[in-house]
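Recap quiz, item 2
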Amino acid sequence: GPLSERPLMEVTLGELHTWISTCDFSPQGLLGTVQRAWNSYYAKYINVRRGGPAGISMLLAGYCLLSYSWNYQHFKRHRWRKYH
Amino acid sequence: MNLSFFDQFMSPSLLGIPLILISTLFPTLLFPSPNNQWISNRLSTLQLWFLHMTTKQLLTPLNKKGHKWALIFTSLMTFLLTINLLGLLPYTFTPTTQLSMNMALAFPLWLATLLTGLRNQPSASLGHLLPEGTPTPLIPALILIETTSLLIRPLALGVRLTANLTAGHLLIQLISTATTALLPLMPAVSMLTTSILLLLTLLEVAVAMIQAYVFVLLLTLYLQENI
């Protein structure tokens, strides 16, 4: 289909910057993107009849990574010191 | 080496958004609203089972009027349990280690139970200040003691949760620092400390669950006296 309506996984690398220029970066647009992304993740990994621990574990691992990046400015000052 | 052991309880901000906001809102992602299929997915089934068990456990002792409190007790229980358990993951922030948040939860709920009792059945609520069968000379002292114990309840609720979680996190950090520091010097002692750390982590998981349950259970008990 036309470039602006294809989902991200079907866009080739060469036309990536064109695709980004057709994106809607208003607050409603971003919110819609986040909602679609979450719904597709939820439908694929969690909302299955016989799911396993993988869906929630990926979410928790992502949360740990997010917390790490949020605290990074603080961590980078932790160094092994010879004398305290 | 950490600059100080209390740094883990600071709430850092990135781009103006404090981490405590994300830590408080993240549990909503873990509890998707069940759709109207009977069996949708394993996560919903587990959560519904857990909610039924908790609701039955908390609300059986209450009379019919107390069942209006079902939603707030169950949601509070789930909220505290999730936040406490999520705080045990590495690098995460636990909002319930902040006294401000626990007092904000404990004080209004306790006050609500007290005012419910004073409004609907004032003499019965005041009657709780004097246990049955006290010898007559002791009555004034006992009323003072019971009033103090009544007024200290919100403080106890908030501080209990804060202190348990803060102490647990601090212990984990201290023992893991000891393990890391001992590893080049005395590896055998370091292994012993690692086993202590594993046991402590199990304890902390238990404490996280128990403290959430105790918080809500005490509120149901305070409600039972007053409704």
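The longest strand of chain B covers residues 13-14.
DSSP finds nine helices and two strands in chain B.
End of item.
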